[in-house]
């Protein structure tokens, strides 16, 4: 499979705001915070939302299941992951 085919397949699996609608309120809040902030760590999300880290982790897992977020390792600190919203508009 070529790189362009892989990209096309990944793009087809992106979530929409409709996928977020039935998620718990914490996941909706995290999605909105990520919408307004380009890329954030889990701790930054917890600080911004005032949610406990455990709740943020749960919300991120739910958003990941719906394919509405993108996560990658931080180049500055490989122990941390960076999260960003990945929704088709």
UniProtKB/TrEMBL annotation:
Source domain of life: Archaea
Pfam family, one: HTH_24
InterPro entries from the UniProt entry: WH-like_DNA-bd_sf, WH_DNA-bd_sf
Name of the protein in question: MarR family transcriptional regulator
Species the sequence originates in: Natrarchaeobius chitinivorans
């Amino acid at each position: 499979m070529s790189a362009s085919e892989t990209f096309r397949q990944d793009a087809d699996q992106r979530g929409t705001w409709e996928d977020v609608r039935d998620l718990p309120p914490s996941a909706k809040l995290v999605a909105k915070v990520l919408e307004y902030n380009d890329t954030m760590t889990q701790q930054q999300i917890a600080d911004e939302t005032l949610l406990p880290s455990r709740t943020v982790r749960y919300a991120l897992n739910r958003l990941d299941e719906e394919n509405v977020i993108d996560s990658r390792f931080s180049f500055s600190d490989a122990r941390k992951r960076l999260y960003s919203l990945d929704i088709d508009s």
